[in-house]
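Possible regression after last week's pipeline update?

I re-ran a chain I had predicted before the update to compare outputs. Posting the input and the new output here so someone can diff against the archived version. Not blocking, just want to make sure nothing changed silently.
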Amino acid sequence: MPTILITTKLNASQELLLKQASVAWLEKEFIQIETCKLQVEKQPVENAIITSKNTVKALLENNIKLKNAFCVGQKTKQAIEEQGVKVIENTDYGADLAKCIAKNYATLTFTFFCGNLRRPELPNTMKAKQINFTEIQAYKTRLTPKKITQPVDAVLFFSPSGVQSFMEKNTLDKPIAFCIGTTTAKEAQKHTKNILLAEKPTIDSLLQTTLKYYTA
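New output (post-update):
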């Protein structure tokens, strides 16, 4: 029976999926998210760029209202729409969203809510195309590395920062690195060639990809 290390906290339905499979697993969080205090000049924010559910949580805690949202990820889109906000565009990756904005919405003004470790592709594209935007840090990601002493066959990674935190006290000499998306995989490639990518960049898809590998 393979043993899988999951580097984030799963919800009840995701844990049930693992319980029904013939695998053993460990659940250890390798990053912590801290919400920032936010201020905006005007509410509701006309055009918000949101790239993670962590940002949605920060906006809710700070009572920031949005009119329109341009977002990354299906779960992020769902969380935004649950607040009654209109999602204008949604892509799987920030780089793709930047291209979409540059092509179709370059005359608009945006507010980009992000984390302290945000990827550079989206803001770099916005700057290169001279699109008017303000960047506001909504949350901080803090690495919480820990040594894993139990042998594992696979490690599931959900962000580049999760890979960085894991590698501070561990290696990927033997385990397979299952990665949620291409940006996470690029970080893992610095440490191993033994990488498998989720079919879609979601936690559920990553779990299904992993279980399919071990039960096929």
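Follow-up from reviewer: compared with the archived run. The chain has a mean pLDDT of 96. Marking as no regression found.
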